[in-house]
User: Fold these one by one.
Assistant:
Number 1:
Amino acid sequence: MKSIKPGRGPLLGSAISSIFAAVFGVIWTCAAIWIGAPFFFPLFGVVFTIAGVVHAVYSLSQATSDQRHSAFDIVDEREEPDPLNVRLGKEAPPPTNSVHSAGFCPYCGAPTKSDYTFCRKCGRQLPQ
Ligand SMILES: [Zn+2]
């Protein structure tokens, strides 16, 4: 399996945008209370503020983390087949054996055979 991770720059930009959204929520809430708007107007600002703060904390932690969550996982159909294709009978159900015996190195993705102990591309020991 390969994964695509979001870049640290876009994550930092997302964190900064979320801070602006949270500040907007605070201004909205204060303005709604000040003009005496019905309760759901200030509540909208509170929800906006909470969502902005949560997203800012998440984005900032991901931007500075060594282990970022993946945005996309790239898997071979033998690792994880498309469930819709399986349901429609266009693809076989997933095998119960390991990634290695499915024919690919779990570290570099190179093709392997079931009798290989080490990957011929990256040299790492393959799980049995
Ligand atoms: Zn390998």
Number 2:
Amino acid sequence: MLFRSLGWLWALLWCGLSVIPGQAQSSRGDLVLINGRLYADLALWGARQGLRSRWNATAGELKLTNRWANLAFKADTARVEFDGTMVWLEYPIAVERGRPMIAQRDLDLTLMPLLKPAKYPAGRKVRRIALSAGHGGKDPGNTEGSRQEKTYTLKLARELAARLKAAGFEVIQVRDQDEFIALDDRPEEANRRRADLYLSLHFNGAGGRGSATAKGAETFALTLPNGRSTHGGSSSGSQPGNRFDRENLLLAYQVHRALIGSVNIADRGVKRANFAELRGARMPAILIEGGFMDHPEDIRRIMSDRERGKMADAIVDGVQAYKRLVERE
Ligand SMILES: [Zn+2]
């Protein structure tokens, strides 16, 4: 009985009847359930966005391109290369009846915010930037010998603050000295002082797990409501930060793209995590991991004033790119 009713639902979806409330636009015969999740035909979606598709069935690779955008997908992986920058999806690309399919949520909440960024309402601006230098005081963060993460996050925050101010932004330093500030208090400070964006600065550590093999930068947006985090785990319900899901992702992407493009660092992608700092922020917020303290290439970059300066320049470029996309003239 169960099988038959599921089969019936399946047939309905294939016939394109709008049986899913709120999904009418996509219910055009290209929606199927895969592992209980709504998936859409990726090439058809691309065509509606004005993107040409090239599907290599043998390699399981789909490319969607036009003059402005270049998206590359691979079957069974939860990633897209979006104009050459890696962005993680919640669910892997599937192949159904020989056609690549993508979770509807990934279309709505990952691809669309990047492809067609929404403008802010008139009058809303990107002016005041909160910087949260990771760790501090009794919490050193990742430690490699005598090098402590908290030292370098504060250096980067100060270098970034100077550059943001030079570019005309106001800056709120959530941590401006070697002191301990609880995770929840950090976005609270930014909320209280009405920051327009929140940037949390960190450096990674593989923590002895396959030590010295992990390298590169990754940038995090908050896990979606009832969503999947990139490295496992999930979130339940909605957090204050989820009000800005589309903006969080666009900001993460623009900053990450600028970082990867101008600093010679490996691209680990735009990811999602349920970090306390991102949960509590009442403004678009991201967390940047600017390389691994325990990788020889990355630590050289982290310790070098010149290289960190380049990193700070790139982050400013990313913020400027975001600002141009969301603000009205
Ligand atoms: Zn950290």
